[in-house]
Amino acid sequence: MVRILLADDHTVVRQGLRRVLEEHMDWHVVAEASDGREAVRQAQEHKPDIAILDVAMPQLNGIEATRQIVRYVPGVRVLVLSMHADEAYVTQVLHAGAAGYLLKDSADVDLLQAVRAVTSGKSFFSPAIARLMLDDFVKQRSEDRAVVDRYESLSEREREVFQLIAEGNANKDIAAVLGISPSTVETHRARIMEKLDVHSAVEIVLYAVRRGIIR
After folding, report:
1. Per-domain residue ranges for the chain?
2. pLDDT digits (tens, 9 = 90+) for 135-150
C-alpha cells in the first residue's frame, strides 16, 4: 500500500487527483491539505510515502513546504505540481529536496507514472521539463554553486515570515500563525529586509513575485 498526501488550495483539483490515484488499488490518499502549512502538519502526522504538493499555496508555498517535509519527515518522497515550465522553478524545487516536478497540464497523463517512479526511489519530470532542464540544469548547477542567492541566506523561520509579509499579513497576524510574539516578527522582518536589501513591504512583495513565491 502506497500512502499519499495531496496538497492543493483548489478542492476540485484535489478531488480530481484523488480519483486518478485511487483507481490504483494499492494507492490510498491518507490526507489532504489546502495550504502549505497544513501540508507539513499532515505529513508529520500521517507520515505518507508520497506527498504531492502544488507549488503555489497560501501561508507556505510548495517549495518551502517541501523543504520542511523533507527535513522533518525524511521518509516522504515529494512530487511538486506546477503550471510553470520554468527553469527557475525547477531549480528551486530540486534544491528543496523534491523527487519530481509535474506540470499540471499533463498531470492526467503523467501522474501515475510519476508516482510509480518516486515510489521506486527514482525521480520524475514531465517530458517538457526534462527536455528543458536536463542539459542546462546539470551544467548550471555546478557553475552556480559560487553564486549565493540572497533569498537562500534566509533562515527557515525568516522564509516563513517573508511569505506571510508578502501575502499582506500584519505583524500580529503573522505572530498568531507562527506562535511567536509580534516583537519577534518585527525582528525577523528587519533581518529579512537587511539580508535581501529591500526597504519596504512593497519591495518585499515585488521580490516575492519575482521569486515566484506568490502570484
Report:
1. 2-144, 150-211
2. 665 565 555 443 347 8
- CATH H-level, domain 2-144: superfamily: Response regulator (3.40.50.2300)
Q: Are 124 and 114 in contact (CB under 8 A)?
A: yes
| The two domains 2-144 and 150-211 share their CATH topology (first three levels equal) | no
Tens digits of residue pLDDT in 112-132? 999 999 998 888 888 888 777
- Cβ(204)–Cβ(192) under 8 Å? yes
> Low-confidence residues of the chain, pLDDT below 70?
133-148
Distance of CA 204 to the CA centre of its chain: 19
C-beta separation of 27 from 2 below 8 A:
yes
Dihedral of CA atoms 136, 139, 140, 141 in degrees, nearest 10, equals 120
Give pLDDT, residue 44: 97
- So what's the architecture of 150-211 in CATH? Orthogonal Bundle (1.10)
